[in-house]
Amino acid sequence: MSDNTVKDTRTVLCVEDEHLISELYSRALNKAGYEVTVIPDGVEALAKAKTKNYDIILLDLMIPNLTGIEILRTLKDPKLDPPIKSKVVIITNLEQSDEVKADIEKQADGYLIKAELTPHELVEFVNSIK
Predict the structure, then answer these.
(1) Is residue 127 a part of any domain in this protein?
(2) DSSP assignment, residue 1?
(3) 4 in any annotated domain
(4) CB-based contacts of 128: which residues, under 8 Å, 6+ apart?
């Protein structure tokens, strides 16, 4: 790998407690050239997201110890110092009311339904995020 390739590696924090899903996503993203960190716990994920600048955070809504919605609200809080620059994409199978989904979509940079998403489609979506 040249130095340019190393510098261009995009980082992804995958906040997902279902091991099979996180493994599928991680493998697909690694193969596409992303550096992926998987954290299955909400409290740990929030701490990591605030201390390391990831390019993209894939955030499940239903995770142990702190919900994805709580993490999203904290990360997108304008008072957060320093503010995060990461793009936050919700990945969920949780049914949402239209109001809740609209509220989440206002704060997030993307909203994906896991059951409708192949690992290849996830990579395509992540590649499209600028």
Answers:
(1) no
(2) -
(3) no
(4) none
> Using CB atoms within 10 A of its CB, is residue 114 exposed (0-12), middle (13-18) or buried (19+)?
middle
* Angle formed by the axes of helices 19-31 and 119-128, nearest 10°: 60
- Cis-peptide, bond into residue 82, ω within 30° of zero: yes
pLDDT for 73 equals 93
Q: What pLDDT, on the 0 to 100 scale, is given for residue 40?
A: 97
pLDDT at 28: 98
The whole-model pTM stands at: 0.90
Query: To 5 degrees, how large is the angle CA 28–CA 96–CA 21?
Result: 20
Residue 96, pLDDT score: 78
Which regions of the chain are under pLDDT 50? 1-7
Region label for 33, one of left (φ > 0), alpha (ψ between -120 and 50) or beta (otherwise): left
Rounded Cα distance between 124 and 108, Å, is 18
Range of the domain at 70: 10-122
- 105 part of a folded domain: yes
Residue 97 sits in a domain whose CATH number is 3.40.50.2300
